[in-house]
Amino acid sequence: MRQEWKIKDRLLKFHHKTLIMGVLNVTPDSFSDGGSYPTVASAVERALEMERQGADIIDIGGESTRPNYAPVGVQEEIERVLPVIEELRARTSLPISIDTMKSDVARAAVNAGADIINDVWGMQRDPDMARVAGETGCGVIIGHNRECTGTVDTVFAQMYGFFETGIRRLLSRGVERDKICIDPDIGFGKTYEENLYILKHLDWLESFQLPILLGTSRKSVIGLTLDLPASERLEGTIATCVLGARQGANIVRVHDVKEVARAMKMTDAVLYQEG
Fold first, then answer.
1. Which of 49, 62, 98, 154 has the highest Cβ tally under 10 A?
2. Distance between CA atoms of 202 and 39, rounded to whole angstroms?
3. pLDDT digits (tens, 9 = 90+) for 83-93
4. Is 179 one of the annotated active-site residues of the chain?
5. Strand ranges, E, within 112-250
6. Active-site pick, 107, 190, 219, 233
């Protein structure tokens, strides 16, 4: 398991701690919190609240990635995220991640103060994304995605090939390997059964010797299991985060920072206790 992740000029360390990435969607249509932070002030205040609650990273997104989402143009996405990033950067030293599939948005966000590019298409939707990552020196999250679902028997083989392609693209653009993080992207192009299988065998991804991010917060795999709407999936989110940490996840991406941070502090105390 990798113990550090280099982002720009700093190191995020995982020694005895699962990091918390707080989700901040500045969108009107995200699946569970769309429209919750309609102004720059409300979005920044929520980010600062998550920092107080225990977030180690703030992940800002300006376009929903829920199923059947409505695509957003580059300029509109930039106009949504940049004022929030700029104001937040002026008020905290916490690492900021930009959740985007577009290289122009990523570049603008990093120039405004973001430290990490979180691409749910793993450098394979926008051909310029790897170049932007190389030129800006930021940390990079490669999320696994695909247009069609597969089978439980083949999901990891397909995921391995996808990650290898993304890693090669980044390395060819001058991105150092220690700046790369991988994310199985639970819920993206996967069946319910595949999502459960990935959660059960997440430790298979440790062979990459890269940090692993796990994002299960309020997702459909929890809703389908518990038969609950997104607003009532906290307990399921906590359960998957605890299981993920046990299977090697270094970072968990969540909406409910306070509750998950407490659960992970207890989990880490057990996982990393000496003797």
1. 98
2. 37
3. 999 999 999 99
4. no
5. 116-119, 139-143, 180-183, 213-214
6. 219
User: Which residues have CB under 8 Å from 154's CB, separation 6+?
Assistant: none
**258 labelled catalytic:** no
Copy the structure tokens of residue 27: 């969108």
273 against 270, higher pLDDT: 270
**Percentage helix, strand, coil, to 5, in the chain?**
45, 15, 40
Q: Which residues, 6+ apart, have CB-to-CB distance to 70 below 8 Å?
A: 29, 64
Distance in angstroms (rounded) separating the CA atoms of residues 159 and 178: 20
Among 271, 244, 213, 227, which residue's Cα sits nearest to residue 56? 213
In angstroms, the CA 220 to CA 196 distance is: 11
The token pair that represents 39 in the structure block: 């102004």
Could you report the per-residue pLDDT of 121-157, keeping only the tens digit for each? 999 999 999 999 999 999 999 999 998 777 888 999 9
Measured distance CA(243)–CA(251) in Å, rounded:
12
Domain limits of the chain?
A: 17-65+74-268
Catalytic residue among 169, 253, 258, 265: 253
Radius of gyration (C-alpha) of the chain in whole angstroms: 17
Check if the beta carbon of residue 108 is closer than 8 Å to that of residue 78. Answer: yes
82-131 pLDDT tens trace: 999 999 999 999 999 999 999 999 999 999 999 999 999 999 999 999 99
Indicate left, alpha or beta for 169 from its phi (over 0: left) and psi (-120 to 50: alpha): alpha
CATH architecture of 17-65+74-268: Alpha-Beta Barrel (3.20)
C-alpha triplet 5, 8, 11: angle, nearest 5°: 35
